[in-house]
TrEMBL record:
It comes from Halorubrum laminariae. PANTHER family: TRANSPOSASE INSL FOR INSERTION SEQUENCE ELEMENT IS186A-RELATED (PTHR33258:SF1). This is IS4 family transposase. GO terms for biological process: DNA recombination; transposition. The lineage of its organism: Archaea, Methanobacteriati, Methanobacteriota, Stenosarchaea group, Halobacteria. The keyword Lyase does not apply. Keywords: DNA recombination, DNA-binding, Transposition.
Amino acid sequence: DSTLFKTGPWLENRLVLFDLAYFKYRRFALIDENDGYFVSRLKQNANPVITAELREWRGRAIPLEGKQLRDVLDDLDRKYIDVEVEVEFKRGPYNGTRSLDTKQFRVVGVRDEDADDYHLYMTNLAREEFFPADLAEIYRCRWEVELLFRELKTQYELDEFDTSDEHVVRILLYAALLSLLVSRDLLDLVTEQADDELVFPTERWA
């Protein structure tokens, strides 16, 4: 549940990868204001105004500044998009009212030639340190985490507990994590000894 995600000082120097259920400009602003970092896919109905281009293109490149992002996507065929955008959102309630505010974030796009479309990401990570391809690779890590949690819930039975005792729950969690580590080590050993053309399932070897 996205409402359980609480912002605060704990975010400092931490990177959070969001799926679309957590997409909120106000949440992103609070992460940025707590010196944290985020990467999220851009929602389909999000159409922020481009305030600056962060990558120069030679030749007759279409100027993007001042235009809404999705209004120009169909006209682009460049491999990457890297722009600064301005978004508008409501702050939290104060004295019974919620004021409007704006914030600048970065949006990058990585072209998917097969789909003839862009994978779009919103972030506050710096252009100088993270190129668009880097952000796409970072976001793919979120899916690996999803698969890991699915494995823990289905293969190691962590989807529900038959106890409400906190100490027992901790023991079950640690036991599952240790089993997962041993499982991965066993898989590595088997893979090293097997023929290259053989493919083994990754889930639960211990």
